[in-house]
Amino acid sequence: MSLPKPLMRGLLGKRLRFHLPIAFTLSVVAAIAFKYTVTEPRKKAYADFYKHYDAVKEFNSMREAGVFESVRPTGE
Amino acid sequence: MLRLPSVRLGGLVVRRASAALSSPVRMASHGNVSLSHSEVSQTVDMSQPMYWDRVDTPLPDRRYKDILTDSEKSLKQKEKGPWAQLSKEEKIALYRMSFLQTFPEMKQRSDEWKTVMGGIFIFLGFTGLLVWWQRIHVYPQRPHTFDPEWQEKQLQRMLDMRISPVEGISSKWDYEKGQWK
């Protein structure tokens, strides 16, 4: 009938000492993972798109497709 | 046990009525009765100290048995002395004077979850019937912009306008070959 006395103090401190380092590490890992899986590929995609981008050629293609109201396709 | 398959056909109204009528009876057999035997009627006088069996608030406002017999009173007197002199049966009797259920009894699992899940599915099914009726009798006509021909023209216009050319839809279209990449 005599059990050992249970822990009465320092319960929050013990929990924090265990969980805070894990929380910080996981947050940093999540941020790094996001950077290298999302932002870096996106920056590269934009850089590659604009490396050989000819604005006048794109404009003329769009004009021929008939999407503008200010300029009609060359035929009309 | 109360078995209710969630069948969404006619005859559901009959089943639902029987479930509503029988569920109060079933609830009483689930074993989570917490009325003390000193309360005769259903109404509880909340201005008096109450008794309860709860795992999260384990010490109620009053002892379970407020009216003690003489033998119980003499046991309570003996409790004021050294506890090592109490026998095991006396300690258990003292506990049962103060509490109706022990922790294991309180934590006993019941079949209430089956009733709960059954009720949830019944109401989900009924809601489905309502939504179905609504779709037939309330919703206006489907807009013509959902037609496949219109959707094709819409997609072609998006590609012509070079919508999302870097990472989105126009980046997946090959403009030279006129097909998806």
From TrEMBL, chain A:
Pfam families: COX6C (PF02937). It is found in: Mitochondrion inner membrane. Component of the cytochrome c oxidase (complex IV, CIV), a multisubunit enzyme composed of 14 subunits. The complex is composed of a catalytic core of 3 subunits MT-CO1, MT-CO2 and MT-CO3, encoded in the mitochondrial DNA, and 11 supernumerary subunits COX4I, COX5A, COX5B, COX6A, COX6B, COX6C, COX7A, COX7B, COX7C, COX8 and NDUFA4, which are encoded in the nuclear genome. Pathway: Energy metabolism; oxidative phosphorylation. The chain crosses the membrane at residues 20-38. Component of the cytochrome c oxidase, the last enzyme in the mitochondrial electron transport chain which drives oxidative phosphorylation. The respiratory chain contains 3 multisubunit complexes succinate dehydrogenase (complex II, CII), ubiquinol-cytochrome c oxidoreductase (cytochrome b-c1 complex, complex III, CIII) and cytochrome c oxidase (complex IV, CIV), that cooperate to transfer electrons derived from NADH and succinate to molecular oxygen, creating an electrochemical gradient over the inner membrane that drives transmembrane transport and the ATP synthase. This is Cytochrome c oxidase subunit 6C. One of its GO terms (biological process) is mitochondrial electron transport, cytochrome c to oxygen.
